Amino acid sequence: MPFTKHLSFALSLTAAVLATTPSSAQSRPEGRTQAAAPLDKQAMEDYIRYLYFWPPDIKIEIGDPKPSAIQGLREFTVKASASSGASFEQKLLLSADGRRIIRCEVFDLGGNPFQETASKISLRGHPSLGPENAPVVLVLFSDFQCPYCRSQAQVIRNNLTASYPKQVRLVFRDFPLEQIHPWARQAAIAGRCIFQQNPEAFWEYHDWIFARQPEITPQNLLDKVMSFARGRAVDGLQLSRCLQTRATEAEIDRSIQEARSLNVDATPTLFVNGRRISQQVTWQQLKGLIDNELRYQSRKEAQPGRP
User: Fold this and answer.
1) How far, in Å, CA of 239 to CA of 202, rounded?
2) In terms of C-beta density within 10 A (0-12 exposed, 13-18 middle, 19 or more buried), how is residue 198 classed?
3) Alpha-carbon span 105 to 103, nearest angstrom
4) Helix 147-163 / helix 199-211 crossing angle, nearest 10 deg
5) What are the pLDDT digits (tens) for 64-97?
6) For the segment 159-192, what is each residue's pLDDT rounded down to a tens digit?
7) Are 142 and 149 in contact (CB under 8 A)?
8) If we measure between CA atoms, which residue out of 221, 198, 251, 244 comes closest to residue 145?
9) Taking the mean position of all CA atoms in its chain, how far away is CA 126?
10) Dihedral angle sign, alpha carbons of residues 124, 129, 132, 133
11) Is 79 left (phi over 0), alpha (psi -120 to 50) or beta?
12) CA distance between the termini of the chain
């Protein structure tokens, strides 16, 4: 079973009971609290590997338990990684006696349910459109060689700014899938080189490279990028040096690392104020998501203190 299917299978499981070494019930003097049982990480890994049907080539890391937001329960993380770079991380709750685990999400009715995810996404220093204080922030992890990303980019660029000039900010993040797209990383590096020189020219490049996606190859990419730069507000010599030295590659690596920490494993992946959308969406669907965010925020402002 492919790793992504293992992950899908894992997501369908909502709870499990962890069998540990049996222990007899013992009476405790009144007024004393029971010390939390230690977590046997090897036993937990064996149990979870069996539960989720993860084969031996999937690396599993079990985090240390810490107090959770729910009294009487601790929480810990389980991270599964494949050699391809795909990863999956899940938070589990652990009973005080160490005999039961619960897979669930805990929400605080006093805050936005997607705020924790939104807070993990870096916005500064990346190509963006729209005002920084916009009430709705779209963060798009994309790949210049991905045909689905091309379609998604066309949907967004043809509609977003005209429909929501002040209410929405779009932030573009690189996530080249170089295992299947051989020129995607170099295209991302080129995009960053152009962005460093002229942020507005990046969006010209964004539209240009998606439009020419079918004719680009690993062999002709650099020549085509240099051809794009001619006649635009981009210094060709500076761009050539940036491309030859791969000067912006570290930025691409950081973007990939952040995407994986958010369990992004496909493109396009869109976050709408932290709400994850792991599929291509039509303009009608995206507009519905944006309007829903605006309505929700309007109600919160009209009735402060209510969830």
Assistant:
1) 12
2) middle
3) 7
4) 130
5) 999 988 888 999 999 998 887 777 888 899 998 8
6) 999 999 999 999 999 999 999 999 999 999 999 9
7) yes
8) 221
9) 15
10) negative
11) beta
12) 41
DSSP code of 130? S
CB 182 within 8 A of CB 148: no
CB 77 within 8 A of CB 92: yes
Rounded Cα distance, 213 and 251, in Å: 22
Name the pTM for this structure. Answer: 0.74
Q: Give the bridge partners for 272, in sequence order.
A: 138, 275
The C-alpha atoms of residue 183 and residue 177 are separated, in whole angstroms, by 9
Query: Which of the listed CATH numbers 3.40.30.10, 3.40.140.10, 3.40.50.920, 3.40.50.2000 matches domain 115-299?
Result: 3.40.30.10
Beta-carbon contacts of residue 281 (< 8 Å; ≥ 6 apart): 152, 155, 270, 289
Instruction: Tell me which DSSP letter residue 234 carries.
Output: S
The CA distances from residue 194 to 107, 185, 216, in Å, are 41, 14, 18
Nearest residue to 153 via CA among 172, 169, 168: 172
